[in-house]
Design goal:
By secondary structure, the chain is of the alpha+beta class. The chain contains 14 helices and 17 strands. It has helices at about 50-60, 75-85, 90-95, 130, 165-180, 190-200, 230-240, 255-265, 270-275, 290-305, 335-340, 340-355, 370-375, 380-390; strands at about 1-5, 25, 35, 40-45, 65, 100-105, 110-115, 140-150, 150, 155-165, 185-190, 215-220, 250, 280, 280-285, 310-315, 320-325. The strands form 4 sheets. Strands 10, 11, 12, 13, 14, 15, 16 and 17 form an 8-stranded antiparallel β-sheet that branches. Helix 6 (about 190-200) crosses helix 9 (about 270-275) and helix 10 runs antiparallel to helix 12 (about 340-355). It is globular, with a radius of gyration of 22 Å. The two termini are about 20 Å apart. Bound molecules: flavin-adenine dinucleotide (FAD). Flavin-adenine dinucleotide binds near residues 4, 47 and 71.
Protein backbone atom coordinates (compact mmCIF):
# COMPACT_ATOMS: atom_id res chain seq x y z
CA UNK A 1 0.00 0.00 0.00
CA UNK A 2 1.47 3.32 -1.08
CA UNK A 3 -0.04 6.31 0.77
CA UNK A 4 -0.27 9.29 -1.55
CA UNK A 5 -0.95 12.92 -0.69
CA UNK A 6 -0.27 15.68 -3.22
CA UNK A 7 2.40 13.53 -4.92
CA UNK A 8 4.91 16.41 -4.84
CA UNK A 9 7.64 14.26 -3.27
CA UNK A 10 11.05 14.94 -4.78
CA UNK A 11 12.38 11.46 -3.97
CA UNK A 12 9.87 9.10 -5.61
CA UNK A 13 8.30 8.33 -2.22
CA UNK A 14 4.60 8.46 -3.14
CA UNK A 15 4.63 6.31 -6.26
CA UNK A 16 4.87 2.49 -6.42
CA UNK A 17 8.14 0.70 -7.07
CA UNK A 18 8.50 -1.55 -10.12
CA UNK A 19 7.15 -4.70 -8.43
CA UNK A 20 3.67 -4.21 -9.91
CA UNK A 21 2.22 -5.40 -6.57
CA UNK A 22 1.35 -2.06 -4.98
CA UNK A 23 -1.96 -0.24 -4.47
CA UNK A 24 -1.82 3.56 -4.31
CA UNK A 25 -4.09 4.88 -1.56
CA UNK A 26 -4.95 8.54 -2.07
CA UNK A 27 -5.82 10.56 1.04
CA UNK A 28 -7.20 13.47 -1.03
CA UNK A 29 -10.83 13.02 -0.01
CA UNK A 30 -10.01 13.14 3.70
CA UNK A 31 -9.80 16.92 3.47
CA UNK A 32 -11.83 18.29 6.37
CA UNK A 33 -10.61 20.60 9.10
CA UNK A 34 -12.03 18.92 12.19
CA UNK A 35 -11.49 21.67 14.77
CA UNK A 36 -9.75 24.99 15.35
CA UNK A 37 -9.05 26.05 18.94
CA UNK A 38 -7.57 29.58 18.89
CA UNK A 39 -7.25 29.65 22.70
CA UNK A 40 -5.16 26.44 22.60
CA UNK A 41 -3.46 27.66 19.39
CA UNK A 42 -4.24 24.38 17.64
CA UNK A 43 -5.95 23.10 14.52
CA UNK A 44 -7.04 19.49 13.96
CA UNK A 45 -7.08 18.52 10.29
CA UNK A 46 -7.51 15.40 8.22
CA UNK A 47 -4.46 14.20 6.29
CA UNK A 48 -5.75 15.14 2.83
CA UNK A 49 -6.06 18.89 3.57
CA UNK A 50 -3.95 20.89 1.14
CA UNK A 51 -1.31 22.92 3.02
CA UNK A 52 -2.45 26.27 1.54
CA UNK A 53 -6.02 25.59 2.77
CA UNK A 54 -4.70 25.10 6.32
CA UNK A 55 -2.69 28.33 6.15
CA UNK A 56 -5.86 30.13 5.00
CA UNK A 57 -8.02 28.56 7.75
CA UNK A 58 -5.50 29.73 10.37
CA UNK A 59 -5.58 33.27 8.92
CA UNK A 60 -9.37 33.31 9.31
CA UNK A 61 -8.94 33.09 13.10
CA UNK A 62 -6.04 35.58 13.17
CA UNK A 63 -3.44 32.85 13.60
CA UNK A 64 -0.45 31.61 11.60
CA UNK A 65 0.21 28.04 10.52
CA UNK A 66 3.84 28.68 9.59
CA UNK A 67 4.72 25.71 7.38
CA UNK A 68 5.47 27.24 3.98
CA UNK A 69 6.81 25.47 0.85
CA UNK A 70 6.76 26.33 -2.84
CA UNK A 71 4.49 23.26 -3.32
CA UNK A 72 1.92 24.46 -0.75
CA UNK A 73 -0.88 24.74 -3.35
CA UNK A 74 -0.78 20.95 -3.96
CA UNK A 75 0.99 19.15 -1.12
CA UNK A 76 -1.14 17.79 1.73
CA UNK A 77 -0.57 17.86 5.45
CA UNK A 78 -0.38 14.03 5.55
CA UNK A 79 2.50 14.22 3.05
CA UNK A 80 4.11 17.10 4.98
CA UNK A 81 3.99 15.05 8.16
CA UNK A 82 5.27 11.91 6.48
CA UNK A 83 8.25 13.75 5.00
CA UNK A 84 8.75 16.02 8.03
CA UNK A 85 8.71 18.91 5.54
CA UNK A 86 10.85 21.98 6.18
CA UNK A 87 10.57 25.06 3.98
CA UNK A 88 11.51 28.68 4.50
CA UNK A 89 10.41 29.37 8.08
CA UNK A 90 12.11 26.50 9.94
CA UNK A 91 14.58 29.00 11.38
CA UNK A 92 11.80 30.62 13.44
CA UNK A 93 9.10 27.93 13.85
CA UNK A 94 10.80 24.56 13.27
CA UNK A 95 9.98 21.85 10.76
CA UNK A 96 6.75 19.84 10.58
CA UNK A 97 7.78 17.60 13.49
CA UNK A 98 8.02 20.65 15.72
CA UNK A 99 4.63 21.92 14.53
CA UNK A 100 2.78 18.70 15.44
CA UNK A 101 1.17 17.87 18.78
CA UNK A 102 -0.74 14.70 17.88
CA UNK A 103 -1.59 12.29 15.06
CA UNK A 104 -4.18 9.67 14.21
CA UNK A 105 -2.82 6.64 12.36
CA UNK A 106 -4.31 3.58 10.70
CA UNK A 107 -1.80 0.82 11.40
CA UNK A 108 -0.90 -1.87 8.85
CA UNK A 109 -3.01 -4.41 10.80
CA UNK A 110 -6.08 -2.17 10.45
CA UNK A 111 -6.12 -0.90 14.03
CA UNK A 112 -6.62 2.82 14.53
CA UNK A 113 -4.43 4.74 16.96
CA UNK A 114 -6.10 7.96 18.05
CA UNK A 115 -3.23 10.11 19.25
CA UNK A 116 -5.00 13.42 18.51
CA UNK A 117 -3.88 15.10 21.72
CA UNK A 118 -3.44 18.88 21.69
CA UNK A 119 -0.96 18.89 24.56
CA UNK A 120 2.31 20.77 24.83
CA UNK A 121 3.35 18.66 27.80
CA UNK A 122 2.81 14.90 27.87
CA UNK A 123 5.52 12.70 29.36
CA UNK A 124 3.69 9.38 29.46
CA UNK A 125 6.22 7.06 27.85
CA UNK A 126 7.45 6.86 24.27
CA UNK A 127 6.30 9.75 22.08
CA UNK A 128 5.03 7.52 19.29
CA UNK A 129 3.89 10.27 16.94
CA UNK A 130 7.52 10.90 16.11
CA UNK A 131 7.82 7.43 14.59
CA UNK A 132 5.18 8.26 11.99
CA UNK A 133 6.43 11.79 11.27
CA UNK A 134 9.12 11.46 8.59
CA UNK A 135 8.38 7.73 8.08
CA UNK A 136 7.43 8.33 4.41
CA UNK A 137 4.35 6.12 4.75
CA UNK A 138 6.37 3.03 5.68
CA UNK A 139 4.67 2.47 9.07
CA UNK A 140 0.98 3.34 8.54
CA UNK A 141 -1.50 5.86 7.20
CA UNK A 142 -1.63 9.18 9.01
CA UNK A 143 -5.30 10.16 8.80
CA UNK A 144 -5.38 13.34 10.93
CA UNK A 145 -3.15 15.59 13.04
CA UNK A 146 -3.27 18.27 15.71
CA UNK A 147 -1.10 21.17 14.54
CA UNK A 148 0.33 24.16 16.37
CA UNK A 149 -0.86 27.67 15.50
CA UNK A 150 0.96 30.91 16.34
CA UNK A 151 0.01 34.58 16.75
CA UNK A 152 -0.27 36.11 13.30
CA UNK A 153 2.66 38.50 12.67
CA UNK A 154 1.35 41.99 12.03
CA UNK A 155 4.45 43.50 10.43
CA UNK A 156 7.25 42.14 8.27
CA UNK A 157 10.48 43.54 6.84
CA UNK A 158 12.27 41.96 3.89
CA UNK A 159 15.76 42.78 2.58
CA UNK A 160 18.09 41.50 -0.15
CA UNK A 161 21.72 41.84 0.89
CA UNK A 162 24.95 41.37 -1.07
CA UNK A 163 27.79 39.65 0.80
CA UNK A 164 31.30 38.67 -0.23
CA UNK A 165 31.41 35.04 0.94
CA UNK A 166 29.50 32.28 2.77
CA UNK A 167 31.62 33.02 5.88
CA UNK A 168 30.48 36.68 5.83
CA UNK A 169 26.89 35.47 5.29
CA UNK A 170 27.23 33.25 8.36
CA UNK A 171 28.59 36.13 10.44
CA UNK A 172 25.70 38.33 9.31
CA UNK A 173 23.23 35.59 10.29
CA UNK A 174 24.74 35.44 13.79
CA UNK A 175 24.54 39.25 14.10
CA UNK A 176 20.93 39.23 12.92
CA UNK A 177 20.03 36.58 15.51
CA UNK A 178 21.82 38.53 18.20
CA UNK A 179 20.06 41.77 17.21
CA UNK A 180 16.55 40.60 16.31
CA UNK A 181 16.16 37.31 18.20
CA UNK A 182 12.96 35.44 17.33
CA UNK A 183 11.86 38.20 14.90
CA UNK A 184 14.24 36.70 12.34
CA UNK A 185 11.84 34.50 10.38
CA UNK A 186 13.87 33.49 7.33
CA UNK A 187 17.46 33.79 6.13
CA UNK A 188 18.16 32.35 2.70
CA UNK A 189 21.54 32.12 0.97
CA UNK A 190 21.66 32.57 -2.82
CA UNK A 191 24.76 32.33 -5.00
CA UNK A 192 25.29 34.69 -7.91
CA UNK A 193 25.06 31.75 -10.35
CA UNK A 194 21.63 30.84 -8.90
CA UNK A 195 20.40 34.43 -9.24
CA UNK A 196 21.81 34.58 -12.79
CA UNK A 197 19.67 31.59 -13.82
CA UNK A 198 16.53 33.24 -12.43
CA UNK A 199 17.25 36.55 -14.19
CA UNK A 200 17.93 34.68 -17.44
CA UNK A 201 15.02 32.23 -17.42
CA UNK A 202 12.16 33.74 -15.38
CA UNK A 203 10.35 36.61 -17.13
CA UNK A 204 9.73 39.78 -15.11
CA UNK A 205 12.58 39.27 -12.61
CA UNK A 206 15.12 42.02 -12.02
CA UNK A 207 18.58 42.27 -10.51
CA UNK A 208 17.94 44.11 -7.21
CA UNK A 209 21.55 45.19 -6.59
CA UNK A 210 24.84 45.30 -8.43
CA UNK A 211 26.37 41.86 -8.84
CA UNK A 212 28.02 40.12 -5.87
CA UNK A 213 29.24 36.52 -5.34
CA UNK A 214 26.57 35.82 -2.68
CA UNK A 215 23.29 37.24 -1.39
CA UNK A 216 21.09 36.79 1.65
CA UNK A 217 17.33 37.17 1.62
CA UNK A 218 16.29 38.24 5.10
CA UNK A 219 12.78 38.33 6.55
CA UNK A 220 11.83 39.68 9.97
CA UNK A 221 8.33 39.52 11.38
CA UNK A 222 6.79 40.90 14.52
CA UNK A 223 3.72 41.84 16.48
CA UNK A 224 1.72 45.08 16.42
CA UNK A 225 4.24 46.70 18.76
CA UNK A 226 7.10 46.14 16.30
CA UNK A 227 5.97 48.90 13.91
CA UNK A 228 9.52 50.14 13.50
CA UNK A 229 10.85 46.77 12.26
CA UNK A 230 11.62 48.24 8.81
CA UNK A 231 13.53 51.08 10.36
CA UNK A 232 15.45 48.76 12.72
CA UNK A 233 16.49 46.55 9.81
CA UNK A 234 17.50 49.60 7.78
CA UNK A 235 19.65 50.88 10.67
CA UNK A 236 21.19 47.44 11.18
CA UNK A 237 22.09 47.12 7.49
CA UNK A 238 23.34 50.72 7.39
CA UNK A 239 25.78 49.93 10.20
CA UNK A 240 26.81 46.68 8.45
CA UNK A 241 27.55 48.69 5.27
CA UNK A 242 29.74 51.10 7.22
CA UNK A 243 31.63 48.18 8.76
CA UNK A 244 31.89 46.65 5.25
CA UNK A 245 30.40 43.36 6.48
CA UNK A 246 27.85 43.69 3.66
CA UNK A 247 28.51 45.07 0.18
CA UNK A 248 25.08 46.50 -0.57
CA UNK A 249 21.48 46.05 0.54
CA UNK A 250 17.94 46.88 -0.51
CA UNK A 251 14.88 46.90 1.74
CA UNK A 252 11.43 46.14 0.32
CA UNK A 253 9.25 49.25 0.61
CA UNK A 254 5.96 47.48 -0.08
CA UNK A 255 4.38 44.04 0.00
CA UNK A 256 4.77 43.88 -3.80
CA UNK A 257 8.51 44.58 -3.54
CA UNK A 258 8.87 41.97 -0.82
CA UNK A 259 7.16 39.42 -3.10
CA UNK A 260 9.55 40.38 -5.94
CA UNK A 261 12.55 39.71 -3.72
CA UNK A 262 11.09 36.40 -2.54
CA UNK A 263 10.40 35.44 -6.18
CA UNK A 264 14.14 35.60 -6.88
CA UNK A 265 14.69 32.88 -4.27
CA UNK A 266 11.56 30.81 -4.94
CA UNK A 267 12.16 30.55 -8.70
CA UNK A 268 15.68 29.13 -8.58
CA UNK A 269 14.43 25.53 -8.93
CA UNK A 270 12.25 26.44 -11.91
CA UNK A 271 15.04 28.49 -13.52
CA UNK A 272 17.41 25.56 -13.17
CA UNK A 273 14.87 23.22 -14.77
CA UNK A 274 14.56 25.54 -17.79
CA UNK A 275 18.35 25.63 -18.10
CA UNK A 276 18.46 21.86 -18.70
CA UNK A 277 19.56 18.70 -16.95
CA UNK A 278 20.75 19.03 -13.37
CA UNK A 279 22.03 16.89 -10.50
CA UNK A 280 20.50 17.87 -7.16
CA UNK A 281 21.51 17.49 -3.53
CA UNK A 282 19.40 18.49 -0.53
CA UNK A 283 22.00 18.31 2.21
CA UNK A 284 22.58 19.65 5.70
CA UNK A 285 25.69 20.23 7.79
CA UNK A 286 26.09 22.01 11.13
CA UNK A 287 25.42 25.70 10.38
CA UNK A 288 28.96 26.61 11.46
CA UNK A 289 30.41 24.32 8.76
CA UNK A 290 28.48 25.69 5.78
CA UNK A 291 31.40 27.80 4.47
CA UNK A 292 33.77 24.82 4.77
CA UNK A 293 31.29 22.55 3.00
CA UNK A 294 30.86 24.97 0.09
CA UNK A 295 34.60 25.55 -0.25
CA UNK A 296 35.52 21.85 -0.15
CA UNK A 297 32.66 20.60 -2.34
CA UNK A 298 33.13 23.37 -4.96
CA UNK A 299 36.83 22.73 -5.16
CA UNK A 300 36.50 18.91 -5.40
CA UNK A 301 33.78 19.12 -8.06
CA UNK A 302 35.60 21.72 -10.17
CA UNK A 303 38.79 19.67 -10.00
CA UNK A 304 36.99 16.61 -11.42
CA UNK A 305 34.46 18.40 -13.66
CA UNK A 306 35.99 21.79 -14.57
CA UNK A 307 33.01 22.98 -16.65
CA UNK A 308 30.28 22.10 -14.15
CA UNK A 309 27.98 24.94 -13.05
CA UNK A 310 27.37 24.84 -9.29
CA UNK A 311 24.00 26.24 -8.23
CA UNK A 312 24.04 26.75 -4.45
CA UNK A 313 21.14 28.17 -2.46
CA UNK A 314 19.07 27.35 0.57
CA UNK A 315 18.22 27.76 4.20
CA UNK A 316 21.53 28.88 5.72
CA UNK A 317 19.85 29.38 9.10
CA UNK A 318 19.00 25.65 9.18
CA UNK A 319 22.33 24.46 7.79
CA UNK A 320 20.39 23.15 4.78
CA UNK A 321 21.68 23.79 1.29
CA UNK A 322 20.25 22.86 -2.08
CA UNK A 323 23.59 22.12 -3.65
CA UNK A 324 22.82 21.48 -7.31
CA UNK A 325 24.83 21.16 -10.49
CA UNK A 326 23.68 22.28 -13.92
CA UNK A 327 24.93 20.63 -17.08
CA UNK A 328 28.06 22.23 -18.56
CA UNK A 329 26.90 23.83 -21.83
CA UNK A 330 29.54 21.95 -23.85
CA UNK A 331 28.49 18.39 -22.95
CA UNK A 332 25.35 16.38 -23.72
CA UNK A 333 22.69 15.38 -21.18
CA UNK A 334 23.81 11.74 -21.46
CA UNK A 335 27.43 12.60 -20.67
CA UNK A 336 26.30 14.71 -17.72
CA UNK A 337 24.07 12.01 -16.27
CA UNK A 338 26.87 9.46 -16.66
CA UNK A 339 28.81 11.60 -14.16
CA UNK A 340 25.99 11.62 -11.60
CA UNK A 341 27.24 8.75 -9.41
CA UNK A 342 30.68 10.33 -9.10
CA UNK A 343 29.26 13.81 -8.44
CA UNK A 344 27.01 12.37 -5.71
CA UNK A 345 29.89 10.45 -4.15
CA UNK A 346 32.07 13.57 -3.96
CA UNK A 347 29.29 15.68 -2.41
CA UNK A 348 27.94 13.08 0.03
CA UNK A 349 31.39 12.05 1.26
CA UNK A 350 32.16 15.65 2.21
CA UNK A 351 28.72 16.04 3.84
CA UNK A 352 29.37 12.87 5.83
CA UNK A 353 32.86 13.95 6.91
CA UNK A 354 31.36 17.19 8.23
CA UNK A 355 28.75 15.33 10.29
CA UNK A 356 25.91 16.22 7.89
CA UNK A 357 22.90 14.53 6.33
CA UNK A 358 22.41 13.40 2.72
CA UNK A 359 18.73 14.38 2.92
CA UNK A 360 17.77 17.46 4.90
CA UNK A 361 14.14 17.91 3.83
CA UNK A 362 13.20 15.73 0.89
CA UNK A 363 13.45 12.29 2.50
CA UNK A 364 14.86 9.06 1.10
CA UNK A 365 12.02 7.60 -0.97
CA UNK A 366 13.20 5.36 -3.81
CA UNK A 367 15.84 7.83 -4.96
CA UNK A 368 18.31 7.59 -2.09
CA UNK A 369 17.55 4.25 -0.42
CA UNK A 370 20.73 2.58 -1.68
CA UNK A 371 22.84 5.66 -0.95
CA UNK A 372 21.48 5.69 2.60
CA UNK A 373 23.21 2.37 3.28
CA UNK A 374 26.59 4.01 2.61
CA UNK A 375 26.08 6.76 5.17
CA UNK A 376 23.85 5.48 8.01
CA UNK A 377 25.63 3.30 10.54
CA UNK A 378 24.68 -0.41 10.64
CA UNK A 379 23.47 0.13 14.23
CA UNK A 380 21.07 2.88 13.13
CA UNK A 381 19.85 0.87 10.13
CA UNK A 382 19.27 -2.16 12.39
CA UNK A 383 17.18 -0.08 14.81
CA UNK A 384 15.13 1.28 11.91
CA UNK A 385 14.56 -2.28 10.63
CA UNK A 386 13.43 -3.36 14.12
CA UNK A 387 10.86 -0.55 14.28
CA UNK A 388 9.62 -1.38 10.78
CA UNK A 389 9.27 -5.10 11.62
CA UNK A 390 7.50 -4.36 14.92
CA UNK A 391 4.84 -2.13 13.37
CA UNK A 392 4.60 -3.61 9.87
CA UNK A 393 5.72 -7.26 10.18
CA UNK A 394 4.23 -8.22 6.80
CA UNK A 395 5.94 -5.34 5.00
CA UNK A 396 2.63 -3.99 3.66
CA UNK A 397 3.44 -0.30 3.83
CA UNK A 398 5.18 1.55 1.00
CA UNK A 399 7.66 -1.17 -0.07
CA UNK A 400 10.96 -0.08 -1.59
CA UNK A 401 10.94 3.31 0.22
CA UNK A 402 13.65 4.19 2.76
CA UNK A 403 14.63 0.47 2.87
CA UNK A 404 15.67 -1.02 -0.47
CA UNK A 405 13.61 -4.05 -1.47
CA UNK A 406 15.16 -7.33 -0.14
CA UNK A 407 17.33 -5.42 2.28
C1 LIG B 1 8.12 22.98 -6.13
C2 LIG B 1 8.41 22.14 -4.92
C3 LIG B 1 8.96 22.74 -3.80
C4 LIG B 1 9.22 21.98 -2.66
N1 LIG B 1 9.77 22.61 -1.57
C5 LIG B 1 9.99 21.90 -0.45
C6 LIG B 1 10.56 22.54 0.71
O1 LIG B 1 10.87 23.72 0.70
N2 LIG B 1 10.74 21.79 1.80
C7 LIG B 1 10.40 20.46 1.86
O2 LIG B 1 10.56 19.84 2.90
N3 LIG B 1 9.89 19.84 0.76
C8 LIG B 1 9.67 20.52 -0.37
N4 LIG B 1 9.16 19.89 -1.47
C9 LIG B 1 8.88 18.44 -1.42
C10 LIG B 1 7.39 18.10 -1.12
O3 LIG B 1 6.54 19.14 -1.50
C11 LIG B 1 7.20 17.85 0.33
O4 LIG B 1 7.93 16.71 0.68
C12 LIG B 1 5.74 17.63 0.79
O5 LIG B 1 5.76 17.62 2.19
C13 LIG B 1 5.11 16.35 0.26
O6 LIG B 1 3.70 16.41 0.45
P1 LIG B 1 2.71 15.59 -0.50
O7 LIG B 1 1.34 15.71 0.05
O8 LIG B 1 2.89 15.98 -1.91
O9 LIG B 1 3.23 14.12 -0.24
P2 LIG B 1 3.42 12.95 -1.31
O10 LIG B 1 4.44 13.33 -2.31
O11 LIG B 1 2.11 12.49 -1.81
O12 LIG B 1 4.03 11.83 -0.35
C14 LIG B 1 5.28 12.01 0.27
C15 LIG B 1 5.54 10.82 1.21
O13 LIG B 1 4.58 10.81 2.25
C16 LIG B 1 3.80 9.62 2.23
N5 LIG B 1 2.43 10.01 2.60
C17 LIG B 1 1.66 10.96 1.99
N6 LIG B 1 0.51 11.09 2.68
C18 LIG B 1 0.56 10.22 3.71
C19 LIG B 1 -0.33 9.87 4.77
N7 LIG B 1 -1.50 10.47 4.92
N8 LIG B 1 0.04 8.91 5.65
C20 LIG B 1 1.25 8.27 5.53
N9 LIG B 1 2.12 8.56 4.56
C21 LIG B 1 1.79 9.53 3.66
C22 LIG B 1 3.95 9.06 0.84
O14 LIG B 1 3.79 7.65 0.81
C23 LIG B 1 5.37 9.47 0.53
O15 LIG B 1 6.26 8.57 1.15
C24 LIG B 1 8.91 20.61 -2.64
C25 LIG B 1 8.35 20.01 -3.77
C26 LIG B 1 8.10 20.77 -4.89
C27 LIG B 1 7.48 20.09 -6.09
Amino acid sequence: MVPQGGNTSLSGAATPDHSGNAVVVSLSRMNRILAIDPANNTMTAQAGCVLAALQEAALQVDRLFPLSLASEGSCQIGGNLSTNAGGVRVLRYGNTRELTLGVEVVLPNGEIWNGLRGLRKDNTGYDLKHLFIGAEGTLGFITAAVLKLFPLPKVTAVAWVAVGSPMLALQLLANLQDHFGASLTACELVSDISLGLVLKNIPGTQQPLSSSPWYLLIELSGSRDDKALDESLENFLGAALVQASVRDAVLAKSYAQARQLWALRENIGEAQKIEGMSIKHDVSVPISRIPEFIERADSALLKNFPEIRIVTFGHIGDGNLHYNQSRPTKISNDEFIAAQAEVNRIVYNIVHELGGSISAEHGIGQLKCLTLLDYKSPVEMAMMHSVKRAIDPLGLMNPGKIFPVNC
